[in-house]
Amino acid sequence: MKITKAMYLMSSMKLRKARQKLSDTEPYFFALEEEITDILLHFPALEDVFFDNRSEDKRETVKHRAYIVMTADKGMAGAYNHNVLKRTQQLLNTLKQQYGDDKERENRLFVVGELGRAFFRGQGYPIEPDFFFSANNPTMHRARQITGRIMDLYVGEELDEVFLIYTRMVNSMKETVEVERLLPLKTSEFVRKEIQDKIDQGLLNPEVIDEKDDWYLFYPTPRAILEKLVLNYLTGFIYGAMVEAHASEENARMMAMQSATDNAQLMLNELSVEYNRVRQAAITQEITEVISGAKALKKKKEAMKKG
Amino acid sequence: MKTFRLRVLACDRVFYDGECRMLIFPSFDGEMAVMAGHERMSTAIEVGEIRFQDEKGEWQSAIVSDGLLKVEKTKVSLLVYSAERPDEIDAFRAEAAMERAKEQLSQQQSIVEYHISRANLARAMARLRGAGKHMPDA
Hey, are the CB atoms on B79 and A229 less than 8 Å from each other? Predict the structure, then answer.
């Protein structure tokens, strides 16, 4: 119980730090997302490697998919790791059913966090070698390295699609596993449709789309911006996801440790009640024995006197 | 003088959010400036120093990493990985980072690693430049 309590305190401290980091990045993260949508809306129909739909090209039957999976370095975090891993397995399994067994080789797993790596290795999934990133204390540097690696493979056409699987903290009681496609980018028509859907649902103001049809200057060229944008977007998104995942992890661990402490406390209470009861029973029995022994002796003496 | 709203967002904080008269930033082909009433524009910014005049007319500066700049009708947002005031920069750390990046560059490495090291070097040098200019004369 000392241990779980100590771990609870530690993760609550770490959670506070992670939360701070999360709220620090949020303005950047949201602005980035907004900007991406905005730019994509205005983007002229470019033929570019980042839009090209290799993923939907029917002629090329083998698709190379990458999954970046965010797990924790350590366990003891309730269902946190389990949920992410289960979701990933589910995804891989549906693909397996769709395309048959041999396509599994075309899925590459980029796992962040020691626990996830150990899990997939143990299950015999092909995980990427030399992809060792810790899930603890996310830094921009790490996000940059991951992005560099992914971009290199993507531009080199070794990957057709890139997905990111991470945990988002909805509130302190609820966490959900999110699957997001990072690459290729959504095309302008697609974004437009998404926004239209939101307008139809009454979530957005219809003016948004009119205003967004205005002419827009890209300096120097759309293509040059796109290059920067993709890097920024990926790095920003991966960093954001790492921070989210880390906060979720500490939150999950804190709750798990809380309930472990509670359970231990409950068990202790039950056990001490039982102990007291047993002790009381033993004492009562002893007293009864002593009394009955004394009574027997008394009776014997009386009998002797009479006799 | 007319002003516009400027937001400088770094990945770990909101660096600046307020009125601004003019913003000067490093673009791919030299420095560019934006004033109120600029046309809508989206552009990329390079590693270097940005300067902006707040509504009182005082110049402020920051060392930024590369990122994106978006000019809208009434506001300008700047999205960068990092933004620091010159006096926040730890010259020793920047120097160490520069040495490290140089050392890495001199070794055989993959293209990705090369780009990362080069970007690291650029950032370290921008920091040092920014810090040096504002350091009191020894």
Answer: no
